[in-house]
């Protein structure tokens, strides 16, 4: 591993009960290749003004690992939810994982700098959890020295499991919400499980809002017959409309979906048409312009030693109820399909490199099963019983293979639980961790 990370501090600010400090780090693109190219990593520190400047210096660090892949660290203007609770105990480091936010961001504009599609695919291979963990370790050594605590949400939990595998000596304790990744097996088993949960969530949603069953079918049939165009210029397809199923992963977002659908149609001299308001809102939901890394690397986060080969697209064939041609098509979840790179203008230039990543068969292992079985780092995870993104059964399978990992299983929250009651969830998981090592709150 590289000897260290060059570190500089940029701006600092005080806002609404919090102080922030902007940190920049220079790290190797390929860890273990100190003479190779480097990239820049950005992270923002948050602390509570309830702590004096002197007291802050003695607070331990908490690294937050965001969901994704492709999600940047949260930008907040005040400490609320889980951050409010965490700031009582920690200096929070909100990391932009490599390729996201300000950390050498990847997009259709920047990737061509790496060369042709093969060169771009080789470059992107350095943006998975193993590299994120190696970045974090260099940052920890620069900032904290001592082991620090980490909190991983969703994909951030996947990264936390890699951290426990690859650099456990750097960890004091690990908190995970909705993010216990399967440790072994092909990505196909992930989608076989999650398609079933997405179907069940559709049933639950349409029981809650029965009028929306007719609305979704009506919109699908309308889109087959009448060209409707998004503000970005491309025609909206039925299958892209079905991406609104991403709303089903949240506890309160299902209500937002209902309000979106009720706004869909207007009457014009040419007959019913989709409203400008609906098309504008849906555009933000079905585009990956803000996080193209998600579409490029989503399936690779499950890949170890074999190609994904567009796993979700293949598994979908087993579930005709999700077909756009179904009598009453269901809404889909967070899965990524090859046609994304044909229909989303932000992804079209990345179609070839996406295909190369789907065919890549030499992905290295992300987890050390022996290390996890011998784990001594206090760890606690929230597993959401009806999570449509990270399957409950696969999560519990993983939990059984991590020594000492305590699980809190709950049906009170969905995948976005920390947005509902992050303060209580964080407090509970931290208490679970601290009860393992004898710490007293």
UniProtKB/TrEMBL annotation:
Gene3D superfamilies with a match to the protein in the record: alpha/beta hydrolase
Highest rank taxon of the organism: Bacteria
InterPro entries on file: AB_hydrolase_1, AB_hydrolase_fold, Peptidase_S33, Serine_prot/Carboxylest_S33
Keyword terms of this UniProt record: Hydrolase
Family matches, as SUPFAM superfamilies: alpha/beta-Hydrolases
Pfam families found in the cross-reference section: Abhydrolase_1
GO MF term set: aminopeptidase activity
Domain AB hydrolase-1 span(s) in chain numbering: 60-213
GO biological process terms on file: proteolysis
Family membership noted in the UniProt record: Belongs to the peptidase S33 family.
Protein name according to UniProt: Proline iminopeptidase
Organism, scientific name: Crystallibacter crystallopoietes
Record lineage: Bacteria, Bacillati, Actinomycetota, Actinomycetes, Micrococcales
């Amino acid at each position: 591993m590289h000897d260290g990370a060059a570190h500089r501090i940029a701006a600092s600010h005080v806002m609404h009960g919090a102080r922030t400090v902007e940190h920049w780090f220079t790290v190797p693109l390929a860890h273990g290749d100190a003479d190779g190219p480097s990239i820049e990593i950005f992270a923002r520190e948050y602390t509570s003004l309830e702590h004096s400047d002197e007291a802050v210096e003695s607070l331990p660090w908490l690294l937050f690992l965001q969901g994704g892949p492709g999600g940047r660290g949260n930008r907040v203007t005040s400490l609320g939810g889980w951050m409010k609770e965490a700031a009582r105990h920690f200096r929070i480091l909100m990391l932009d994982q490599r390729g996201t936010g300000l950390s050498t961001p990847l997009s259709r504009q920047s990737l061509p700098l790496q060369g042709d599609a093969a060169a771009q695919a080789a470059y992107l291979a350095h943006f998975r959890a193993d590299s994120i963990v190696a970045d974090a370790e260099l940052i920890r050594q620069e900032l904290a020295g001592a082991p620090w605590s980490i909190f991983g949400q969703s994909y951030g939990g996947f990264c936390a499991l890699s951290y426990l595998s690859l650099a456990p000596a750097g960890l004091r304790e690990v908190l995970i919400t909705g993010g216990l990744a399967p440790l072994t097996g092909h990505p196909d088993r992930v989608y076989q499980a999650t398609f079933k949960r997405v179907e069940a969530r559709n049933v639950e949603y349409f029981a809650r809002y029965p009028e929306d069953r007719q609305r979704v079918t009506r919109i699908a049939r309308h889109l087959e017959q009448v060209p409707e165009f998004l503000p970005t210029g491309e025609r909206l397809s039925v299958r892209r409309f079905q991406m609104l199923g991403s709303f089903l992963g949240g506890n309160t977002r299902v209500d937002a979906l209902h309000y979106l659908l009720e706004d869909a149609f207007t009457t014009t001299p040419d007959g019913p048409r989709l409203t400008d308001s609906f098309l504008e809102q849906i555009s933000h939901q079905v585009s990956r312009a803000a996080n193209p890394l998600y579409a490029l690397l989503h399936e690779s986060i499950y890949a170890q030693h074999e190609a994904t080969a567009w796993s979700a697209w293949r598994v979908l064939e087993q579930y005709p109820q999700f077909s756009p041609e179904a009598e009453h098509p269901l809404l889909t979840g967070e899965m990524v399909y090859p046609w994304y790179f044909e229909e989303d203008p932000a992804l079209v230039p990345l179609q070839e490199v996406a295909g190369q990543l789907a065919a890549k068969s030499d992905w290295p292992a992300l987890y050390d099963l022996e290390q996890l079985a011998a784990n001594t780092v206090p760890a606690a995870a929230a597993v959401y019983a009806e999570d449509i993104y990270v399957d409950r059964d696969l999560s519990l399978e993983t939990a059984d293979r991590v020594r000492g990992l305590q699980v809190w299983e709950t049906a009170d929250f969905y995948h976005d639980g920390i947005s509902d009651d992050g303060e209580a969830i964080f407090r509970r998981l931290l208490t679970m961790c601290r009860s393992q090592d004898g710490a007293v709150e």
